């Protein structure tokens, strides 16, 4: 069984991170008005009989407290405060106009009994549980059809105690898909900030069918060998801002999704207008930033900058497959620092994994207008492994100002892709060697919006700069 992270582990990691050369800094981009809001009504979880000894199950206390606070929803909302202690609980629901606030020494612990994580219906854009047919275990902290929800604290902790779930999963003894740590559905005006999330059973933070979501100043940690412990997965959601986060997990740090094959195509809820800034971390088997593989509802208008990934399998990745349909377009990623990363940039057009036999293999995804620029990397094995789909090329891929210290003799491997490049070292593959001349500006997403161009000596080409 994989060892879970403890608070001592987290403090050590954060201390090292704060001194690291890749530590991020700078002004804020996400709006912060809601996270600082003071609710006119507040209660403490102990008022409802909760005991913070790490042993007593407090599910009823959380449920009763939130039921009580619902009476203040139309009176400016309310706050549920969790003081110092170790508060064991099963899954509980949030309500609109609520702040769940944790003391800096508060730890909400997920129950080790799977019966305390009820089974709910599959998401309509997935058609089944992501891992197993049928339903899925509900997240520890859950909500649907909510408005104005804040989950915050003075770096308090929410620990899913996921090692039992990882063990059940690896032994194939589960009957339903594992739960997330936090999932909000069909909700708007969501803020998650100033917290540490540990040891999620499955994906950690999952906003799905949501809008106006801010995730800021959070730390997410699971062991690097823990299965499918993604950090933050915006899914069929729009107007999402993720900023100032440190994530170290067993899978993708951030994975942008929008439904799975025929179910995602039918549900037709894209992920769009997503901002990611000042993100750092490492992943055991995933990517720093991934799009897909479930992207059948479409993904567009993604801007990511100031990213720093180390000791990881992949830096930037797009995953899709015949049968997905949908699209990934208008993606802009810049200011990336990589260290000890196996593959800097990876596109996978044959990812596979289908929900059932009813998907349409002729539903081909559209992948186009992907710009990646201002990337540096040390101790990189492969600069790029870019694999499109035969008969369905990935188009208008633009690479600019990328310098990678690679250890492999074959730095780039490309198939079924087309695009442009400037100032890429080592030299990119033939399908992307055409320089970014002015007549190509409209092909290179976002570069054409910032027409401050520079000529570089000895290149005979033009490179656009944001």
Automatic annotation (TrEMBL):
Molecular function via GO: polygalacturonase activity
Superkingdom assignment: Eukaryota
UniProt xrefs under InterPro entries: GH28_Enzymes (IPR051801), Glyco_hydro_28 (IPR000743), PbH1 (IPR006626), Pectin_lyas_fold (IPR012334), Pectin_lyase_fold/virulence (IPR011050)
GO biological process: carbohydrate metabolic process
UniProt KW keywords: Glycosidase, Hydrolase, Signal
Annotated signal peptide: 1-26
TM stretches of this protein: none
Family: Belongs to the glycosyl hydrolase 28 family.
Name of the protein in its database record: Polygalacturonase
Organism per entry: Liquidambar formosana
